[in-house]
Amino acid sequence: MNILYGAYTFLTSSLFLSCLPPFWIYSRLSGRHGENLKERLGHISPKIVQTLSGSPRVWIHAVSLGEVKVAVTIIQALKRIIPGCSVMISTTTKHGRELARESFGEDIPVAYAPIDFIGSVRKALYRVHPDVLVFLETEIWPAWLTEAHRMGIKTVLINGRISVRSIGGYLKFRSFFREVLRNVDAFSMISEEDSARIRAMGADPHKIEINGNAKYDLLVSLADPKMETQMRKILNLDTLCQVFIAGSTRGGEEVMILNAYEKIVKEFPDTILIIAPRHIERTDEIVSLLERRGLRYQLWSELDNGVVKRTEAVVIINTFGQLFKLYSIGTVVFCGASLVPLGGQNPMEAAVWGKVVFYGPSMENFLGAKAMLEEVGAGVPVSSPEMLAEKAIWLLKRPDDLKTYGARAREAVIRNQNAAEKHARVIARLL
Question: Which residue, among 284, 275, 267, has the nearest Cα to 393 in the 3D structure?
Answer without folding.
Answer: 267
